[in-house]
Amino acid sequence: MPPFDRLHPEVRRWVRDQGWAGLRDIQDQAIGHILDGGNDLVVSASTAAGKTEAAFLPILSLVAEEQPPGLPILYVAPLKALINDQFGRLELLCERLSLPVTRWHGDAADGPKRRLLARPGGVLLITPESIEALLCRRPAAASALFGQLRFLIVDELHAFLAGPRGTHLASLLRRLEALAEPSSLGPARRVGLSATLGDLEAAATWLRPGSPARVTLVTSAQADGRIMLSVQGILEPLRPQSATPQSATPRSATSKAEEGESRAGLLTIAERLLATLRGTNALVFGGSRATVEILADRLRERCEAQGLPNEFFPHHGNLSRDLREDLEVRLKASTLPTTAVCTSTLELGIDIGSVESVAQIGAPRSISALRQRLGRSGRRGAAPALRLYVLEPELDSKAGPLDQLRPRAIRAAAAIRLLGAGFVEAPGAPDTLASALLHQTLSLICQHGGIRADRAHQALCGPGPFAAVPPDLYIALLRSMGDPARRLLEQAPDGTLMLGEAGERLTSARDFYALFATDEEWRLVTTGRSLGALPLREPVAPGNLLVFAGRRWVVVAVDEQARIITVAPHKGGRVPGFEGSAEPVDDRLSAEMRAVYQDQAPAPGADDALARLVAEGREAYARLGLGQHQAVRSGAEAHLFTWHGTRLNALLALILAADRFTCWPHDVGVVVSGPDIPRLNRRLAHLATNGAPDLETLAVDVKGIGHGKYDALIAPAVLQRFWAMGMAEAARTLPRAAAPLQMPEA
User: DSSP class of residue 288?
Assistant: First the structure.
């Protein structure tokens, strides 16, 4: 029987009423797997390929036919706006099937929620944070609501494969499964929906930890792979280096100083955006909020100067919800030409209708993010259109090796090659595991009113995000939480763990239910004077270098409690235009950059300016001898090129700093300032032969480890053990990376 004919009659009528010519291949495949099998499912296809319907059409058909008791379908999404979109798409279909559909998040009405709790049934659309709130505040209601689940759908699965929200949701799924009533048919089948999955096996492992073989992988065969591509190179005019540091204390003032340095290049980009995007619907991903505001303001000014209505509007997290939603509605309506200049806020699947093209400012650092952004364009059968604008500094005689190598242009070429090859980064080790485990332990105690340590470890640290946490490390975390200085936990005479005074305050706060936190900024000071603030993405240690306000600074001391880094001016070489690792770069992207340097293939989609920049980078690569060596000297600096990503480079820089070398990591290696070359070579040879030192010992001197929301509540020694566990994979790779890093003789 054809897949369509197997659907419930009312579902078939609904499909016909939509005016569809037929089902898409991804929907045909999913219908068979869901109706016939008992496996979990990962459905991976391009944006607007019909993944939501691929899951819901057969699942609703089954539920409408069988009429199981309780709530059979739970749909989890990362964004309230996405839940609202899906509610609008499902409401009429579910009404035909006499199935209630309820949305549950902070902005949803209370009436439908109360009705669902009184009589569970149909479909519940919910965020992870709202699941957490139910488990903590209404555990009995949560048990009754989730005890009969048949299907659990996770939308935008790629958004949960890494980071604190992914760790959080994976733990919640395990806890929901533990609520299944004995009368139920076993664990709810899990269905993951995603547009950007490169490593499908990793997705299967996340969706069903411990049993990835139970996950069927369904991908679309209809995508033709066409991309309309333009990669443009732009030279940032040479500007004199500031002789004195910026003295502004507020972050906003510091940002303005930094923005001014790159304003000329951004204004050039604004003129090109105006010429190419005016009259269309488009998204422009600017990266930082500062870049978004500069571009949107410039584009508005140009429209007004020409007496034209403005079509360009900013969209970022700091704007009010009303302003963001007004822009989203305008994009979706498609009645007026509209371009949203945004951060990553429009990266996920909010329904904003058909977008003709996507632009990005800066060379991509994440293929996954690039693929997701690209998927927002090319709807209605058109090929996706992507424009990349890559800024490189103009060079003079003082330019250092990093600027000479034109790394941004090379990274853009490498990213496009990986995009064409279908690569997407695999999930990495979470940096916030300790914080997440503390959070889930407190939540578990709220849910049960108290629990023994062995039961808590069993409930949380089985197959899933905390599987690598051994009992002794979990006990150390619990002792840290129960320390009189923290009072998060108390233990009854029979061994039951209960909330302490501080634990009760923490769990009763409204922001407890979300595990993610905004990047916390650290204040930089020198000789008692504040330089400004910056988010710290990688751990640091005394001896590491930071680039800030146009100068280099050596880390003198770190006050983790006050989030203050004391620095001193460093007389290193010229500050490179090569940006730091605000967003991590994967090992594969760094390796592909080296491949671009080593061959002469033209950069896909490159204009003449970008092609020249790539050629300059290749010439510098050859001139510096990087085809024969992975280390070069430049003045008083040693440049070590590991051709690995930011995680390994950060670890190597910490190890060298512990050995009293002054250094800083970047995307493809580490710069060592004024080193004793023979001693550096001996140290690198030792690393190549013996591997990384004991990470727990190294961690004692590492600062800025805590990136998680609740890391400040964890004893430093415990946090250091979690950091060491998370860096184990990079440590295993280090000997291979260090082996070719010997400095050639002068």
Answer: S
Helix/strand/coil for 166: helix
Is 178 exposed, middle or buried, given 0-12, 13-18 or 19+ CB atoms closer than 10 A?
middle
Per-residue pLDDT at 294? 83
3-state secondary structure 342-354: ECCCCCCCCCCCC
The two three-digit tokens of residue 695, written as one number: 């990470």
Give residue 196's pLDDT: 63
C-alpha to C-alpha distances, 97 to 54, 66, 104, 118, nearest whole angstrom: 17, 12, 21, 20
Judged against a pLDDT cut of 70, whether residue 620 lies above it is answered with yes
Sign of the CA dihedral running 505, 506, 512, 513: negative
Distance CA 474, CA 438 (A): 9
With beta carbons less than 8 A apart as the criterion, state whether 408 and 362 touch.
yes
SS (H, E, C) 50-75: CHHHHHHHHHHHHHHHHCCCCCCEEE
Sign of torsion over alpha carbons 399, 400, 405, 410: negative
Residue-wise pLDDT tens digits, 300-332: 888 989 998 999 988 876 676 777 778 888 888
Alpha carbon separation from 428 to 270, 490, 646, 699, 726 (Å, rounded): 35, 34, 12, 20, 9
Residue 350 has pLDDT above 70, yes or no: no
Say how many C-beta atoms besides its own lie within 10 A of residue 16's C-beta. 10
Whole-number percent of the chain with pLDDT over 90:
58
Residues 6+ apart with CB under 8 A from 612: 233
Strands (E), 536-678: 545-548, 551-559, 564-569, 631-634, 637-641, 662-665, 669-673
Among 262-276, 305-319, 539-553, 565-579, where is mean pLDDT lowest?
565-579
What are the backbone angles phi and psi of residue 617, rounded to the nearest 5°? Answer: -60, -40
The larger pLDDT score, comparing residue 122 to residue 568, is at 122
pLDDT tens, position by position, 142-174: 999 999 999 999 998 888 887 888 899 999 999
Instruction: Give burial (CB, 10 Å; 0-12/13-18/19+) of 653.
Output: buried
What are the distances in angstroms from CA 338 to CA 228, 311, 397, 418?
20, 5, 44, 30
β partners of residue 530 = 525
Residue 341: strand pairing partners: 284, 314
